[in-house]
Amino acid sequence: MNVDAPSAPRRTEVNAKTILDIRQLTKHFAIRNAFGFQKGVLRALDDVTFTVDKGEILGIVGESGCGKSTLGKTIMGIHPPTSGTMVFEGNDITGQTPSAARETRRHLQYSYQDPGASLDPRWKIRRSLHEPLVIHHGSLSFEEREQRVREILQAVGLPASHLDLYPHEISGGQQRRVGLARILTLQPSLIVLDEPTSGLDVSVQATILNLLLDLRKQFDLTYLFISHDLSVVRMICNRIAVMYLGKVVEFGDTEAVFETPRHPYTRSLLSAIPTIGGARVTDTFSLEGEPPNPGNLPSGCRFRNRCPRAEPRCAEIEPELRADWPGQEAACHVAT
Amino acid sequence: MTSNLLEVRDLRVSFATDGGVARVLDNVNLTIGRGQIVGLVGESGCGKTTLARSILGVLPKNSARLESGTIAFDGTDLLQVDPDALAATVRGRRISFIPQDPFSSFNPVFTIGAQIMDLMKWKSPALDDAAAGGSGWLPRFYGSSRRKADHDRVLDLLRQVQLPDPEAVLKKYPHEVSGGQRQRLMIAMALLPEPKLIIADEPTTALDVTIQAQILKLLRKLATDHGISVLFTTHDLGTAWEICDSITVMYAGQEMEAASSDGFFKRPSHPYTNRLLKSLPSRDGRIAGIPGDIPGLVNPPPGCRFHPRCEFATDLCRQTRPDLTPVGAGHAVRCYHPVAEEKRHALA
Q1: In this structure, what is the dihedral angle of CA atoms B222, B225, B229, B235, given to the nearest 10 degrees?
Q2: Is the pLDDT of residue B246 over 90?
Q3: Superfamily name and number for B4-248
Q4: Which secondary-structure segment (H or E) carries A109?
Q5: Contact status of A64 with chain B (Cβ, < 8 Å)
Q6: Angstrom distances, CA of residue A206 to CA of A173, A278, B287, B297
Q7: What pLDDT digit, counting tens, does each position of A243-293 carry?
Q8: What are the start-end ranges of the E strands in chain B?
Q9: Per-residue pLDDT averaged across B89-99, rounded?
Q10: Is A235's CB within 8 Å of B287's CB?
Q11: How does residue B139 score in pLDDT terms, banded at 50, 70 and 90?
Q12: CA torsion angle for B59, B2, B124, B216 (degrees, to 10)?
């Protein structure tokens, strides 16, 4: 343990490089019965706090239903947060007016999980690529827009002839490239990437990941990389946040988290990844059961029902993130 | 009777499409030994699902055409057997199927119990082959004693797939159970007829990684306990490494390499296989993809279909397709230029 560790951990530290500062972000959804009466609350995000530095790739990992997509969508303003603040490039973007939010979206963009579904099937690629410029930079003429679109299309590695094709005429990997091009035409500074490689073959995934790394350099981008694929996250991210049922349970530098996972959930998650040439998961994996219903969470620590190391205090006190390790924090009473 | 449970030889299947005839399987061979888990690995569109469907005999009748080849299951060529007899005695009984998507494979308006018991009515191992053929249109007699025995068997199997509280699960509707539990139910349903071969079509793609690990562990255990062979199709080399005894790699309708799991990951010999392994995310920075795109199957490249993307391609590769060449014990590769030792993507 590092005794000289600074009092404010890097997760919450705000400095000149900070581009996005998220404090105690909470999003609850009401569970209603057939008559519209609220019968419970689903804690999709609970007290999420972290900062993102300019130029870094922050990974958000977790299983389905852990709130990672809700986090991305709340940052984008698609869901209004229940409480908490979000500061992007020095401006508070919590509960903005629609016109201010539109201004923010020029710099903060969201890449959907399936870009094929977000392209209009009746529009040619050209029209889809022009659309963001028409909305955000209405003063540009067609020729100016066309020039910028062609530059971006080249940057994502597609020929200009693709402008005259329809979405169904190109492959899934190419649709993702078009989706990225569409975002890049606005020259954003932070992109929320929601599962950018899910559903792709490994050879196509490899080219998309390389493209993302190239584009980051070329356009000076920062990524919030939401994924359930831990091997991809390990390769591409600088820091990662592991989420379980709406809470960040572990946060830290990617290498630290992968080399020495502190939270029992992170350990299970990592031991479930198939590693070619390594120990077989079918021999070593021990976690049982499935995540509980997020509308009906256990008391205390959310993971205690499945945790191999649960103690009585885990049922009473909900653990907070502890910065007891250099470059790493975990929300667990028993982690050492 | 041969020693192998299933032998597919020189199978050719083509599909009529708007653009012309697509040869989706081009002289494909596949061997499954008794009690083996065989991985059929390939990217989307390589024909692995078509091969699985050909074995089951459920290709779409109006567009697919079996041109040539044999599928020998337990010594009989399934392509020569009368289709009705196949449906009554083999499909769903000797060979069963685990689908990719546990979400859309149940009927949402019936309880899980009703759907499983319906399966037992038609495909129960207690039913002898003659009775299974049935008398055509007449309603089938389902005696209460057999129903009771079947019900007990179902509960027993649900316990084997480690479902909590099986009695309660049978009364639930499909939307009331989670994805992992639905996949467990699918495995139980595949095991119920006591098959000799289970075809699992990407059974873990839709699942989270921790649930995937549980399901793989379960599948491995049950296959060993019941002595069942499994054909496991997947696009993920990691899952193939986890549970397969041997591996066949397909690309654009041709099989490229077939080997035991150990041999495959220690000595990958086909250029495509090596490229595929190099495409996996590694811990140190950049990964190499495969340049170019998967070819269309209507007018595929002649010879070896991988040659336009292959760094070792020669004129010979462009003209004729290579035969299966042995490169080690139980390890064969369809390539004129198997990757030399020093250039391989060594892993273990």
Answers
A1: 30
A2: yes
A3: P-loop containing nucleotide triphosphate hydrolases (3.40.50.300)
A4: strand A108-111
A5: yes
A6: 10, 22, 6, 23
A7: 999 999 999 999 999 999 999 999 999 988 888 877 788 788 888 888 888
A8: 4-17, 20-33, 37-41, 64-73, 76-77, 95-98, 197-201, 229-234, 246-251, 254-260, 325-328, 331-333
A9: 89
A10: yes
A11: low
A12: -80
User: CB under 8 Å to B68, separation ≥6 — which residues?
Assistant: B10, B11, B12
C-alpha to C-alpha distance for B221 and B217, rounded to whole angstroms: 6
As a 3-state breakdown, chain A gives helix, strand, coil percent values, each rounded to 5, of 35, 25, 40
Rounded to whole angstroms, the Cα distance separating B260 from B249 reads 11
Query: Angle B54-B206-B100 (CA atoms, 0-180°, nearest 5)?
Result: 15
Cβ atoms of B22 and B294 closer than 8 Å: no
Q: Which two tokens stand for residue A291?
A: 């995540």
pLDDT at position A33, please? 87
Separation CA B15–CA B64 (nearest Å): 4
How far does CA B115 lie from the centroid of its chain?
Answer: 23
User: Count of CB contacts below 8 A, A vs B?
Assistant: 113
Domain ranges for chain B: 4-248, 252-343
Number of CB atoms found within 10 A of residue B62's CB: 7
Residue B71 Cα, gap to closest chain A Cα (Å): 29
Residues 6 or more apart whose Cβ sits within 8 Å of residue A26: A43, A45, A46, A47, A48, A81, A82, A83, A84
As given in the structure block, the two tokens for residue B101 are 């998507």
Mutate to test the interface with B, among A162, A290, A306 (most CBs of B within 10 A): A290
In 10 A of CB B289, how many CB atoms? 21
Separation CA B12–CA B23 (nearest Å): 7
Pull the structure tokens for residue B277.
Answer: 């392994």
Q: Looking at the DSSP assignment, which residues form a beta bridge with residue A244?
A: A247
Task: Say how many residues make up chain B.
Answer: 348
According to CATH, what is the number of the domain A18-107+188-330?
Answer: 3.40.50.300
Cβ distance of A203 and B279 shorter than 8 Å: yes
Domain regions of chain A by residue span: 18-107+188-330, 116-187
Extract the tokens encoding A285: 């994996």
> Could you give the strand order of the β-sheet that contains A190-194, starting from the edge strand earlier in sequence?
A108-111, A190-194, A222-227, A57-61, A239-244, A247-253, A328-330, A322-325
Cβ A277–B235 below 8 Å, yes or no? no
Q: CA of A266: which chain B residue's CA is closest?
A: B210
Structure-block tokens of residue A40 = 């419970």
Q: Which residues of B touch A (CB under 8 A)?
A: 43-44, 178-181, 208-214, 216-217, 220, 235-239, 241-243, 265, 275-277, 279-283, 285-290, 293, 347-348
Q: Which of B208, B210, B347 sits opposite A276 (nearest CB)?
A: B347
Phi and psi torsions of B86, nearest 5°: -60, -45
Residue whose tokens read 């924090």: A329
